[in-house]
Write a structure and sequence with these properties.
The chain is an all-alpha fold and 718 residues long. It is 73% helix and 3% strand. It has 38 helices and 5 strands. A 5-stranded parallel β-sheet has the order 2-1-3-4-5, sandwiched between helices. α1 links the parallel β1 and β2. α18 runs antiparallel to α19.
Length: 718
């Protein structure tokens, strides 16, 4: 009978594919019916069906081992990974290990052997040209011509006195019954493997259970493997654990069972128990890279990132081409904010496994953390290309685009993520933030509401909704959201800071300061909280204390534009005009389009009598912000001080056009008209300023308007 063999190999490159073809052709010439994919398949064929049939029907499987084959087999990638699933299932359940013959093609055995083949005897054809002696050994194995032990001679006749004919009949009957039972079991195993390959999970489980029930207590090794297959197929983690318990009861030294039970326990967040199982797996099998990798994942889930890295190091040391531990080690390093190191690990994972979607996602996240937003988007694009229905990739790409202020594009990505995953609370939350940036406040709140419907304890959503309500002037409602965030997360520094800001908006300056204190206590380098506390103190007239807070904010964050701006404002209040101008200069150098800094620097210069310089600053503020009402009013004041009353009135006119209720502009325009002798028009402006100021409870402007009206009356009496 001519032996049949199927060759399982990876398409490393054209040279390797040609080497495999030549080996197959030579084996056929030497009497072996070799099946090779390039000979046996054509366009339109189902590759999965071909692989299943070839492995099932061939007498031998030749496994051509290279580093790439190992990687794809261990990671269960592509055709090699699919073939690996079929072969490991058959080898485990039929115990026909000799069917699968490893062939070393390149590298060392440890570098190229898939995990399930480690420890097997292999044929070494790695030399170039390969060893003829080793090739002939392969052929003899396939043809069944290997050297065997010589026959055992007949025992001494005097030993046996029983009726041999009757004994032989009984033996033949027993063997016949055993043979039938074995045939039935083997048929059930074949059926279970086939059902498993077809994805018919429940039917496959039924068959494996039937096998376990028949052989348990007779062949515990086979029973254990049946229960192992059941555990692999079951979806519920508790049920899987029960199945692996049965395996371990039957085969206490089976390391794979401990590893798999650990994975199931981890799915239930029973991480300590899971780690104990992985400990036992590596004790039984010290070179078990997958168990080290899994234990690393469990340590990482417990926040033990340094311990996780040690496990990943061990897995990588055992299997340097195992992409998974590199990716996972990168995640652990990223959690420790070691983004550059994480980046290197993701690169290695991708080099080993170019279609590793999760590694692209994680590398993109590391790039975002390093402010490399465009490069991050390229990684997310690649992930989406590889897996077009990957909601997380769209969400993360949206985050990177938002960082580049491409909010419309970001929203489009969040929309796609939500369409793919309708309960994706994180995507709704990020979309809400992007809508706030586009001033779409009502829509943003609707998204936050949806987040909290899906996930009522989503702390950040309360913060985001509170921030949105603050922008809408709904300060009390915003404070209620910040309260909820703080109840859920008492150490949420940002929530205390933002609640303080809402209280300031409600003129609750003294109440705001304890919130800022708490934020700073929780996050000592929180520059924004120092700045905001400084603002509250300035509003309470505590200017020196306010400046101390601004100083600390700038020590922590030397490029903090807002801190220079408000410190300049406070110094202006203290009459320290030159120092204030220095702060405004720094703010403008950091942010040349900051219109408010130009306006306020103009105010400081005007107070020093430098009216021309002040006007130049107001000009720039207005150029940057055409509807900057206060800048028009201030420029008008500087022009009035230079006795350019007509030009000043033009500026006041524009300020009033932009804001008809601007009492100060009416007051200033009245003063300019009075200087030009336009008494009636001046009186109208003073009266308007007084009325507007009273309506707004602006006592100082109302009093100034009254005083000007009295002065006009006295002037007329004279």
């Amino acid at each position: 009978m001519i032996p049949s063999a199927f060759i399982s190999y990876s398409w490393d490159d054209d040279t390797h594919k040609e080497w495999v073809r030549k080996l197959a052709r030579r084996l056929r010439q030497d009497g072996v019916d070799v099946t090779l994919d390039r000979w046996a398949t054509a366009p339109g064929d189902q590759l999965s069906t071909f692989m299943e049939r070839a492995i099932r029907e061939s007498q031998f499987i030749l496994i051509i081992c290279t580093p790439r084959y190992k990687s794809r087999s261990d990671e269960r990638e592509g055709g090699v990974g699919y073939e690996g699933d079929i072969m490991t299932a058959e080898a485990m359940n039929k115990q026909n290990h000799r069917k699968f013959i490893p062939v070393l093609r390149k590298g060392t055995w440890d570098e190229v052997a898939p995990s399930w083949l480690s420890g097997k005897i292999y044929i070494d054809l790695s030399a170039n040209p390969y060893s003829e002696k080793n090739y002939k050994e392969l052929v003899r194995t396939l043809l069944g011509n290997r050297e065997t032990a010589p026959p055992i001679g007949k025992p001494m006749e005097t030993i046996f006195h029983a009726d041999r004919s009757s004994s032989k009949q009984l033996d033949d009957m027993a063997q016949s019954e055993d043979s039938l039972e074995e045939e039935r079991i083997n048929k059930t195993i074949d059926q279970a493997v086939f059902l498993q390959q077809q994805g018919k999970r429940d039917k496959a489980i039924e068959n494996w259970r039937a096998i376990a029930q028949v052989v348990e207590g007779i062949d515990n090794d086979l029973a254990a493997r049946a229960w192992f297959s059941i555990g692999y197929l079951l979806e519920n983690p508790e049920d899987r654990i029960s199945a692996y318990d049965r395996v371990i009861g039957l085969e206490p030294n089976l390391s794979e069972a401990y590893n798999s039970r650990g994975i199931a326990k981890a799915a239930l967040s029973r991480y300590e128990e899971a780690i104990a199982d992985c400990d036992e797996a590596v004790r039984l099998k010290p070179d078990y890279a997958e168990a080290y990798n899994n234990r690393g994942n469990m340590n990482a889930a417990l926040g033990r990132y340094e311990e996780a890295i040690v496990d990943y190091d061990e897995a990588i040391g055992l299997e340097p081409d195992f992409a998974g531990p590199y990716n996972n080690r990168g995640i652990a390093k990223a959690e420790l904010e070691r983004y550059v190191d994480a980046f290197a690990d993701y690169n290695k994972a991708i080099r080993l496994k170019p279609d590793y979607v999760e590694a692209y996602i994680n590398r993109g996240a590391a790039k975002v953390a390093l402010d490399q937003y465009s490069d991050a988007i390229a990684d997310y694009n690649k992930a989406i290309q590889l897996k077009p229905d990957y909601a997380e990739a769209y969400n993360n790409r949206g985050i990177a685009k938002a960082e580049l202020e491409r909010y419309v594009d970001a929203i489009a990505d969040y929309n796609k993520a939500i369409r793919l995953k309708s309960d994706y609370a994180e995507a709704y939350n990020k979309r809400s933030i992007a809508k706030v940036a586009l001033d779409q406040y009502s829509d943003a709140i609707a998204d936050s509401n949806e987040v909290l419907r899906l996930k009522p304890d989503f702390v950040e959503a309360y913060l985001v909704r509170g921030d949105t309500k603050t922008k809408l002037g709904q300060y009390s409602d915003a404070i209620a959201d910040y309260n909820k965030a703080i109840r859920l997360k008492p150490d949420y520094a940002e929530a205390y800071n933002n609640r303080g800001a809402a209280k300031v908006a409600l003129d609750q300056y003294a109440d705001a300061i304890p919130d800022y204190d708490e934020a700073i206590g929780l996050k000592s380098d929180f520059a924004e909280a120092y700045t905001n506390r400084g603002n509250a103190k300035a509003l309470l007239g505590q200017h020196s204390d306010a400046i101390a807070d601004y100083d600390e904010a700038l020590r922590l964050k030397p490029d903090f534009v807002e801190a220079y701006q408000v410190r300049g404002d406070t110094k202006t209040e203290l009459g320290q005009y030159s120092d204030a101008i220095a702060d405004y200069n720094k703010a403008i150098r950091l942010k040349p389009d900051l219109s408010k800094a130009y306006n306020n620097r103009g105010n400081a210069k005007a107070l020093l009598g430098r009216h021309s310089d002040a006007i130049a600053d107001y000009d720039e503020a207005i150029r940057l912000e055409l509807d900057y009402v206060e800048a028009y009013n201030n420029r008008g004041a500087a022009k009035s001080s230079s006795e350019r009353y007509d030009d000043a009135i033009a500026d006041y006119d524009e300020a009033i056009r932009l804001n008809p209720d601007y009492a100060e502009a009416h007051l200033s325009r009245g003063a300019a008209k009075r200087a030009l002798g336009q008494i009636d028009e001046a009186r109208q402006d003073f009266e308007k300023a007084r009325d507007l100021a009273r309506d707004a409870d602006n006592d100082s402007t109302a009093d100034a308007s009254e005083q000007n009206l009295r002065d006009l009356g006295s002037q007329e009496d004279e």
